[in-house]
Amino acid sequence: MSIIHLTDETFEKEIASGDTLVDFWADWCGPCKMLAPVIEELADEYSGRVKVGKVDTDAFGEIAESFGITGIPTVILFRDGSELARFVGVRPKEDFTAVLG
User: Fold this and answer.
1) What total number of domains does the chain contain?
2) Using one digit for the tens of pLDDT, what is the confidence trace for 69-94?
3) Quick check: is 47 in a domain?
């Protein structure tokens, strides 16, 4: 499964059911680029079980603002539309797999 690029139009629908891991990032953000390969690995490994999406905070700042995101990268795990876990900054893959199961 590939990574879903979330927009104002698709965000709510995509996180509404099941588990969705969302990476809030920006193109100019060095730490975001460092985290990107981990997010890609998670998308491959959890394909069919967890949706993995990305929100470009420059293009869709309203979404980031609505979740109180003040620093990027921030990754949020949603379950059926509700926030289950939040990770701020570059984190090792194991931090994510610990909550994804």
Assistant:
1) 1
2) 999 999 999 999 999 999 999 999 99
3) yes
